[in-house]
Design goal:
Chain A: This is Succinate dehydrogenase, cytochrome b556 subunit. The complex is a heterodimer of chains A (125) and B (151). With 125 residues, chain A is an all-alpha fold. Chain A is 74% helix and 0% strand. In chain A, helix 1 crosses helix 3 and helix 3 runs antiparallel to helix 4. The longest helix of chain B is centred in the N-terminal third of the chain and has 29 residues. Chain B has a single domain, classed as 3 helical TM bundles of succinate and fumarate reductases (Up-down Bundle), CATH 1.20.1300. Chain B is elongated and about 90 Å long. The chains are: A mainly alpha (125), B mainly alpha (151). Chains A and B meet through helix 1, helix 2, helix 3 and helix 4 of A and helix 1, helix 2, helix 3 and helix 4 of B.
């Protein structure tokens, strides 16, 4: 019998944590998206206004924020594809745990590709 | 032990969870999240690759960079799709979050009204910006403009 301590098929396992991470990353991306459309809208004000505000994205603090943002976007994208597979692929539910670890591995590979390149852009190597 | 047999339906037997038949709003919303999500993976990964990976990455983004991109209808359509799908997908996700956590009817209504307002304003603003953008505004400092703005 499953209990709160031992967890269940879902609770405290890959299924639950991927749901939690999907929700948090989605909320964060949505908030960023609202700000990002506003800052891009400054191209209609003047080149100076746009360059001034977008210049903040090139600072160290924002540069690290972009790492977190890209990490959230890549996770949300890959886990979203996992959800589609779980819903529409006949073997999806059987392999949902493997799919989760697949998401983690592909996420790590893509981040390993992005991070050095981004840090080079930021710190001009 | 009883010898009578009870007929238990196969666990995979289809059954109707609600009395509703055919399409309904929540099902369309569920379908939309998957359809738009799959498209957004392509759109957003392409956006990140071109803007943050190629060239000078984030350091290369300025007015001239945006002007150069939006001179092409390809990137206008790309960004327009990303804007609409992203905001509706994200707005629908936040709607789900509000429905899950906001207990009071009034709180839920106020939060969703704010959400819909933000989504509509942002979509309208972004759409106007994409279609009314002038990469070579009259009287602007020439060094800040894309290279094709001459004369």
């Amino acid at each position: 019998m499953a209990s709160a301590q031992s967890g269940t098929l879902y609770r405290g396992r890959e299924g639950m944590w991927s749901w939690v991470a999907h929700r948090i990353s989605g909320m964060a991306i949505f908030l960023f998206l609202l700000v990002h459309v506003l800052d891009t809208a400054l191209v209609r004000v003047s080149p100076e206004a746009y360059n001034e505000v977008i210049g903040h994205y090139k600072t160290v603090v924002f540069g690290l924020g972009e790492v977190a943002l890209v990490g959230a976007v890549i996770f949300h994208a890959l886990n979203g594809l996992r959800i589609i597979l779980v819903d529409f692929w006949s073997k999806g539910t059987t392999h949902q745990r493997k799919l989760f670890w697949g998401v983690v591995i592909v996420w790590a590979v893509l981040m390993a590709g992005f991070l050095p390149r981004h840090l080079m852009h930021m710190f001009g190597a | 032990m009883s010898t009578s047999t009870t007929s238990i339906p196969d666990p995979t037997t289809r059954y109707r969870r609600t009395g509703q038949r055919g399409l309904n709003a929540e099902m369309l919303s569920w379908m939309f999240m998957r359809g738009s999500g799959a498209l957004l993976v392509i759109l957003v990964f392409g956006h990140l690759f071109v803007n943050l990976w190629l060239g000078d990455g984030v350091k290369g983004i300025d007015f001239a960079f945006v002007g150069g991109k939006w001179a092409s209808p390809f990137w206008q359509v790309w960004d327009l799709l990303m804007l609409w799908l992203g905001l509706i997908h994200g707005g629908n996700g936040v709607r789900t979050i509000i429905n899950d956590y906001a207990r009071g009817d009034r709180t839920r209504m106020v939060l969703k009204a704010l959400l819909y307002f933000a989504v509509v304003v942002t979509i309208v603003l972004g759409t106007l910006v994409i279609f009314t953008f002038d990469p070579c505004p009259v009287g602007a400092e020439p060094s800040l403009l894309p290279s094709f703005c001459e004369g």
